[in-house]
Design a protein that fits this description.
Blueprint lengths: L1 E5 L2 E5 L15 H11 L14 E4 L5 H9 L9 E5 L2 H14 L6 E5 L8 E7 L4 H11 L3 E12 L5 H10 L3 E3 L6 E6 L14 E4 L11 E4 L11 H8 L9 E5 L5 H9 L4 E5 L3 H13 L1
Parallel strand pairs: 3-4, 3-6, 4-5, 6-7, 12-13
Antiparallel strand pairs: 1-2, 7-9, 8-9, 10-11
């Protein structure tokens, strides 16, 4: 187990599943940079007020959520701390890290990206995701809860923050500026614009499949933001669809790592007597698979 050192103390953190010989850390320099800034260690403005409703979007393994939960233990009255993630494994890791850190787990709300967001957000902390589409979708979903006084800070490795990333913040929330890079990490500061017209998320996307794909030829697939190959089928899936075995009678088919669920849906169409289970660690993937299955 590795230990994260923050201005508020040290925390033993692990990923999930926890593997004894796993040397990968549950945080990186982007998490450290954000926590130092919030504590006022790297800021001329002092520590950030964390007594309001704090939302942590995209926390990789719960490092940010755990440190913030422990920090808020000595505050007499605080609003909810909410973690929003697309990863089931992140939620499992966060629960374990919260217990290990001695945090009040009842004071932390673990939500998926498909759940209804809070009505009001006072501090929005964003670990920039690898998927630009997921960032776009979540900014749209959270924007109605953001007010002109909301503190919005994003963090990520310099290789994860691009002009397109900053453009999304500006288009959906308001003007942005970035920090200097520290240990290959950077912060994004966004000032929510008052009176900005809110637009809805363009996700999910749907498209019709081409011919030559067996039972799903011409069928519609549904893709929520962040799904692999959300605009079109990848070559491996197309190849597999053309070679799915044709079976009949009762059986249990598991679509493991289901994505948009097109493989499991094809199996169900080929064999109506089969029971199909869609499995993925992404909440958006499971939602996409369900939507694709119901559509067909």
């Amino acid at each position: 187990m590795n230990r994260l050192t923050t201005p508020w103390g040290e925390f033993g953190l692990t990923r999930f599943p926890e593997l004894p010989r796993d040397t990968l850390r549950a945080w990186d320099t982007a998490d450290e940079y954000l926590l130092r800034h919030l504590a006022g260690a790297d800021s001329d403005t002092g520590p950030t007020d964390l007594s309001g409703t704090v939302v942590v979007l995209g926390d990789r393994w719960g490092a940010l959520t755990t440190a913030l939960a422990v920090r808020r233990l000595d505050q007499l009255r605080v609003e909810p701390l909410v973690q929003i993630t697309d990863s089931y494994l992140t939620q499992r890791a966060t629960r374990a890290n919260l217990r290990r850190g001695g945090a009040d787990t009842e004071a932390v709300r673990l939500r998926s990206v498909r759940d209804t967001p809070p009505d009001r957000i006072d501090v929005l902390l964003i670990r920039v995701p690898k998927s630009l589409a997921l960032l776009e979708d979540q900014l749209h979903r959270l924007a109605p809860a953001v007010h002109p006084g909301t503190v919005v800070i994003g963090t990520g490795r310099v290789t994860e923050i691009h002009t397109s990333t900053l453009r999304l913040f500006e288009q959906i929330l308001g003007p942005v500026r970035t920090s200097l890079a520290v240990r290959k990490a950077r912060l994004i500061f966004c000032e929510p614009a008052a009176g900005r017209t809110r637009t809805t998320s363009p996700w999910p996307h749907s498209y019709a499949l081409p011919d030559g794909l067996g039972a799903v030829s011409g069928r519609t697939v549904v893709n929520h933001a962040g799904i692999f190959c959300a605009e079109r089928l990848d070559i491996g899936t197309r190849f597999l669809l053309r070679h799915l075995p044709r079976r009949h009678g009762p059986e249990h088919v598991v679509d493991l790592g289901c994505g948009n669920g097109v493989i499991g849906t094809a199996a169900a169409l080929e064999n109506p007597a089969a029971r199909v289970t869609f499995v993925d660690e992404s909440f958006s993937a499971v939602a996409s698979a369900e939507a694709t299955f119901r559509k067909n």
